[in-house]
Design goal:
- By secondary structure, the chain is of the alpha/beta class.
- The chain folds into three domains: 222 residues, Rossmann fold, CATH 3.40.50; 179 residues, no CATH class; 108 residues, Orthogonal Bundle (Arc Repressor Mutant, subunit A).
- Helix content is 56%, strand content 6%.
- The strands form three sheets. Strands 2-3-4-1-5 form a five-stranded parallel beta sheet.
- Strand 9 and strand 10 form a beta hairpin.
């Protein structure tokens, strides 16, 4: 191991110039993500069929998510953009301020504010500065950062478009220590007054572009710095059209409690509300993953794990999506058998035809394959195990069944959700994801909650049931293509017929039926004692009059039709052969998604070969120490041998004896200054990780904060 990579803090970096950013600023090039910079052709697994299928599927999912994000943020962004456009129409000494209540899904804010910043630059103004809490160390650093974004970055954008401008002084990027508000004022006035003749269409004197300052994480800002910032900027509001946009995760009271009156009086606030993170998650699931064209499905156990992490840990839809991405990668890495995870029948047919014997063996290793073999006759068992052509035909049929099942599964899951989401106490939940979690774990129609829901549906009024049936019928009509005759069309026609018959049951007939019941059941309450009165009420509840029987029969028939469909299509995924190709339910993924930090750190430091996979760190016993190990591993393993208090000199001597081992005439270890510096760095790293801390009890000792392995 090289000297440059002795420390773990250095060893975790990749020493390669391939992705090193250029020191020169390239015009027109925006920063791209790693996935955009690296082609799939350069991947280690690019030759594997499963990897090509994985990359194709995930790219399509990402495109759908991006489109959905733009659609969901569009409404609130339109309002924000409209506010920024019009806020300076009327002159005022207050700074126009938009407060966006984003909710506590903090990790997802970046997506929303990135989209907002991009839309502002495209449609309103090129002058947009985004300031984060890490930029607010002090007021000087905050001002320099903001003005740098306004002047230098805006100049880069403008001069790329305006080739006629050749003023070398304007093209020169100003240093940060030269940036202040008077410089910004001079630059702004020069841009919109002196240069009007050059770019009349873009910048006119009467159409000055506003200066937008976006602060996405208001709660994390240093309050004192923020107050000074607002007061200073307010002094320039007559000459510089500033607009503030604050992202607040909690409530508007946070703004009032953070800013005293002398500061809050300098801003004019308008509040906007963003979508809740739970609604955001439901939209992503129902419009991306719970659709007919998404072949990858999460099993009930893994889906519940991801949902629990979202609801009880971070409320981040972005993290939820990244967890699914990890599950997709884990799913496809099983082998080429997972290349069959597609809803396109043509693609799956081509994949099966291209399968080699090894690929078919990969399919035969699926657990559900055993159930398939056991259900066949003895002769067919041999053919399935040995005849690849015969097995390919079986595989085609089973994959078609699964594709059809997934389409029907999501369709009837939505229909069931329409029926039960507004029932008292919501036995099956109110969202599609609630039903999905149950239906992928067990047969939902056999559950007690399902039976309770249908009992409650038996008491639905005509208006409630009619509204639900209209929603279901219109949904089925959208899913039926052309004049195709199938079970879905038959179901839609039956529901239409019963709905029309039920609508013919007029309100006059209902009122007459109620009146007849009231007149026939009038009784003298004074002639009954408590027991007799109870028996009479029970008897009355069992009486069914003919006018009500008619609606009751319609309702019973409708529920019976729907119940039969649910029995047929909402079956447990595990009942199908090769369901593992479409459904991922390996709960061991929990160890990677929700790791035990201390255990992972201990494994890395105690046995670095576990992660580095190098021969120089391999040890025969857990307590062994090799000089070729990273320094921090050696220091960590030595600290495990100590008690509550650790003598730094003895610790250093033990470290030197392993690294160097040279002794002086008195038998003491010779301490080289480089080795001592390496030891000091390792001690600092262990203190940062929380294993030790300095103590006032003894100046040359540190206190150990952990015990055991």
């Amino acid at each position: 191991m090289d000297d440059e990579t002795i420390s773990v803090s250095k060893g975790v970096f990749v020493f390669s110039n391939e992705f090193k950013p250029s020191s020169k600023r390239e015009k027109g090039n925006k920063r791209q993500s790693f996935s955009q910079n690296v082609s799939f052709k350069n991947s280690l697994f690019s030759s594997n069929l499963w990897y090509r299928s994985y990359s194709t599927l995930w790219r399509s999912i990402e495109d759908e998510i991006e489109y959905l994000n733009n659609t969901m943020f569009e409404r609130v962004l339109e309002k924000l953009v409209g506010f920024v456009k019009t806020c300076h129409y009327n002159e005022s000494e207050e700074i126009p301020t938009a407060v966006l209540l984003t909710g506590i899904n903090m990790p997802d804010h970046a997506v929303q504010f990135t989209a907002f910043s991009k839309q502002l630059k495209d449609t309103v103004t090129p002058h947009v500065a985004c300031l984060y809490s890490q930029d607010a160390q002090n007021i000087k650093y905050l001002m320099e950062n903001m003005i740098n974004q306004f002047i230098n970055e805006t100049n880069d954008c403008l001069f790329e478009e305006e080739d006629m401008l050749t003023d070398d002084d304007m093209k020169t990027r100003l240093k940060k220590n030269q940036l202040n508000l008077p410089v910004l004022q001079c630059w702004y006035e020069n841009l919109y007054n002196v240069k009007t003749s050059v770019s009349e269409n873009q910048h006119t004197k009467n159409n000055k572009k506003v200066l937008v300052v976006i602060i996405p994480d208001f709660e994390s800002f240093n309050v004192q710095v923020l107050q000074k910032f607002i007061l200073i900027v307010s002094c320039y509001i007559r000459v510089l059209p500033f607009v503030f946009v604050f992202g607040i995760a909690t409530s508007i009271t946070t703004l009032h409690s953070s800013l005293p009156y002398k500061v809050s009086s300098k801003i004019c606030v308008k509040v906007f509300k963003s979508q809740r993170s739970v609604d955001y998650l439901n939209n992503v699931l129902e419009n991306v993953f719970f659709t007919f064209h998404c072949p990858f499905q999460l099993g009930g156990k893994v889906f519940n794990l991801f949902t629990d992490i979202f609801l009880f840990y971070d409320l981040s839809v972005n993290n939820f999506i990244q967890n699914i991405k990890f599950a997709v990668a884990e799913h496809f890495s099983y082998g080429n058998a997972m290349a069959l995870c597609s809803m396109d029948k043509r693609v799956t047919t081509e994949v099966i035809d291209s399968f080699s014997h090894d690929d078919l063996e990969n399919v035969r290793h699926l657990l559900s394959f055993r159930k398939l073999v056991e259900g066949e006759s003895y002769e067919n068992r041999i053919k399935i195990l040995t005849d690849d052509d015969y097995f390919k035909q079986i595989l085609r049929d089973e994959i078609k069944k699964l594709q059809k099942y997934i389409r029907r599964f999501h369709m009837f899951l939505y229909i069931l959700c329409v029926l039960v989401r507004d029932l008292p106490k919501a036995p099956l939940g109110i969202q599609v994801r609630d039903l999905y979690a149950i239906a992928t774990t067990k047969k939902i129609t056999k559950t007690q909650e399902y039976k309770e829901c249908f009992k409650l549906l038996g008491f639905q009024s005509k208006g409630e049931l009619s509204s639900k049936l209209n929603t279901i019928i219109s949904y089925l009509e959208r899913k039926i293509s052309g004049n195709t005759k199938n079970k879905i069309r038959e179901l839609s026609d039956k529901l239409k017929m019963h709905l029309n018959n039920m609508n013919d049951f007029t309100m006059e007939e209902m009122e007459e039926a109620v009146n007849e019941i009231e007149s026939s059941n009038r009784m003298d309450l004074g002639s009954f004692d408590r027991r007799q009165f109870k028996e009479k009420l029970i008897g009355m509840s069992k009486v069914q009059n003919k006018p009500l029987n008619r609606y009751g029969k319609y309702r019973e028939n409708i529920l019976e039709i729907l119940s039969v469909s649910f029995e047929d299509y909402l079956v447990e995924p595990k009942s199908f052969h090769f369901h593992e190709i479409f459904f991922f339910d390996d709960i061991s993924i929990q160890n990677h998604i929700v790791g035990c930090h201390r255990s992972a750190i201990h494994s890395a430091l105690n046995d670095p070969q576990y992660y580095l996979q190098c021969d120089c760190c391999e040890i025969p016993f857990p307590s062994s120490i090799r000089p070729s190990m990273p320094d921090i591993s050696i220091v960590y393993k030595l600290h495990l041998e100590c008690g509550k208090m650790i003598n730094l000199y003895d610790w250093l001597q033990a470290f030197v004896s392993i690294i160097d081992g040279k002794e002086d005439d008195e038998g003491k270890m010779l301490v080289d200054l480089n080795i001592q510096a390496r030891f000091t760095q390792c001690v600092a790293e262990l203190e940062y990780l929380g294993f030790i801390k300095t103590t006032k009890r003894k100046a040359d000792h540190v206190s150990r904060l952990t015990w055991g392995g």
